[in-house]
């Protein structure tokens, strides 16, 4: 794939952007340049040279600050590279860890209860099955919550703070939850088809509603609705709900497709700070 680098004029305008009497870049150009600079060391070097040429006062200030800091930095031992931590930080947040741990604990408890109540009755209720569709929802909410992300201000100011980052964090949640559910389903005899499609449908529905009311509120609404409309009646009736049986699975396909379509149609909404609620 050919990478298009910003031109010298565009970098000069980027340096001059915001200065009194300087050239103001369009928002799309500004974000495109910043996103490219994140991954291109050569263009960062070009930018540094452009700053030294175009804004000598800034270059002089940077040199003065560096001259003060360099002796102190030389005393401290260099920290080892943390490439893995840096990569994980683009997919997860610190707040996701306890939420994902809680999801895994709930999965394990549901598995233990299922195994304890294992019997010949084909209509027995599987707690793992009724809880699986909404287990990722809590992790998704934690991944995109303003109150739970200590680096929210920094994250929201980056060029990639929109839908791509949200999808990365959602994928990180699913990467942890789905293997645990697959293992639990194998141990209890619950086929993946019974819970995987509803699980993905609920995740896409949470993201779709999140574009309108915020991901945290959407996750709470989805989880509360499932618990009230499916889990509680299932436990009360003593039979697995029809929507989780084989004949009810085709209903989840349109729900998943609709959720994905809404997320795509509203992809521009994820750059708004309100979506981190």
Automatic annotation (TrEMBL):
InterPro entries assigned to the protein according to its UniProt record, in alphabetical order: Anti_sigma_zinc_sf
Keywords linked to the UniProt accession: Membrane, Transcription, Transcription regulation, Transmembrane, Transmembrane helix
Gene3D superfamilies according to UniProt: Anti-sigma factor, zinc-finger domain
TM spans (from-to): 96-113, 125-145, 165-183, 195-213, 219-237, 249-269
Protein name per the record: Zf-HC2 domain-containing protein
